[in-house]
Design a protein that fits this description.
VC0802-like, Rossmann fold, 2 domains, 13 helices, 15 strands, binds adenosine-5'-triphosphate, binds magnesium ion
Length: 387
């Protein structure tokens, strides 16, 4: 019986393409891994195009793999055994690792990033492959898509063998200086948008606009649950809950029903932009998808984004609902988002809202409302939680 794996070999995604910046990205990823794994982790090394982690003997392996599977910048990772660079040890380890597994086809994949290593990849593949074939009668070598891959990594300082491979989220490591503020409703789309920015290496802060009069503990809990799900993909997560009732009441009072939704949205972007500026964030993020709902028509998006104090990124803009749902399921926000919830955007909004608003028209309507003192008050009363 083999002991638990001692190491994990982490293969990163796009970092490898960034020739001059590779060292910087590798260090960033290693630091993020270190912060997420905490105590489970003994040491991490950058070794020729990959990262290798040494685990503490008593580390919870399943929890470690679960966490690594959500750290942006990792393409895939392999639980591995650090072994002596000796052909007989390779054979004995491979046989022990495969014993008890169900497979019919296999291959040996030797990776030799350190080219001075005396072992030649082809020769190791052949000799080790033959030993496995002898030890497991009836099993066949298959180079394309075999049931198991015995992977051997010969780095400068160590040799690692692995047979399992877990997918990561891909993307780029979180860089805390690339902060963005994502507007999160209780809906399905916005958490996916926030996640996609995390995956591209941004630190995402969340802002939610709340109509206090409609909020029950359960509704607020839904936003907190979404924040918790998303927080698993980055190091620090801040959630800002902005009271929106007074501003909404002012809009309901002074704005024709067909335009209310767009005024809510414009105001949310305005407030989020002001908040983002104090957080040194340079972009806002929304869950908008082109023409999915009335507020997202060509004209309405143009009109609501037009006066925003900050550029707006909408990573879902070209995705279909089906594609968004698939991502939401994968990141564990679908079930939370599906709980019933009254979004404050739908208050006092007619069945047939404006579909072709103009930016100047919205600005004129907004300028006539006494919003400034209420905006200042809402920002002052914003509550912050950290995850
Ligand atoms: P979602 O599923 O994210 O709610 P949606 O397709 O239902 O999106 P809208 O409800 O029109 O579309 O909202 C569009 C975007 O505006 C949302 O994706 C989100 O970024 C932002 N938004 C809407 N309501 C709120 C809110 N109460 N607080 C914060 N952001 C919001
Ligand atoms: Mg919504």
């Amino acid at each position: 019986m083999m002991q638990d794996f001692s190491n994990i070999v982490v293969h990163y995604a796009e970092i490898g393409l960034k020739a001059q910046n590779r060292g910087y990205f590798e260090k960033l990823l290693l630091r993020n891994i270190h912060r997420k794994l905490g105590d489970a982790y003994l040491a991490g090394r950058r070794e020729s195009g990959q990262l290798t982690l040494a685990l503490r003997a008593d580390a919870d392996r399943a929890a470690v793999c679960d966490t690594l599977g959500r750290i942006p910048g990792i393409a895939y990772f392999c639980p591995a055994w650090s072994i002596r660079a000796d052909m007989e040890v390779f054979k004995a380890t491979a046989i022990a690792l495969l014993t008890g597994r169900t497979f019919t086809t296999f291959k040996v994949d030797t990776h030799r990033p350190h080219k001075q290593n005396p072992f030649k990849s082809m020769q190791v593949n052949r000799e080790l492959g033959a030993a496995i074939w002898n030890a497991f009668p009836g099993k066949k070598v298959k180079l394309a898509d075999p049931d198991v891959v015995v992977k051997l990594e010969l780095t400068e300082k160590a040799t690692y063998m692995s047979v399992d491979r877990y997918p990561g989220v891909g993307g780029l490591p979180t860089n805390a200086r690339q902060r963005v503020v994502a507007l999160i409703s209780g809906g399905l789309d916005s958490p996916v948008a926030a996640y996609l920015m995390m995956k591209r290496g941004c630190e995402v802060e969340l802002v939610h606009f709340q109509n206090q009069s409609q909020v029950t503990a359960a509704v607020e809990d839904k936003i907190v649950q979404l924040a918790r799900q998303l927080a698993r993909y980055q190091i620090h997560t801040r959630l800002h809950i902005v009271p929106f009732e007074d501003l909404q009441r002012e809009i309901i009072k002074g704005v024709h029903a067909t335009l209310r939704m767009l005024l809510y949205r414009r105001l949310m972007l305005d407030l989020a932009g002001r908040l983002a500026a104090t957080r040194r964030a340079k972009f806002l993020v929304t869950g908008d998808s082109f023409s999915q709902v009335a507020s997202q028509t060509y004209d309405n998006l143009a009109a609501t984004y037009a006066n925003c104090p900050m550029p707006v990124l909408a990573p879902l803009i070209g995705l279909d609902k089906r594609e968004i749902v698939a991502i939401a399921e994968g990141i564990g926000t679908y079930a939370v988002s599906s709980q019933p919830y009254e979004d404050c955007c739908s208050f006092f909004v007619p069945k047939h809202p404006e579909l072709h608003a103009q930016a100047v028209g919205l600005s004129r309507v907004a300028a006539d409302l006494p919003l400034e003192p209420l905006i200042a008050q809402a920002l002052a009363q914003t509550r912050v939680s950290e995850f």
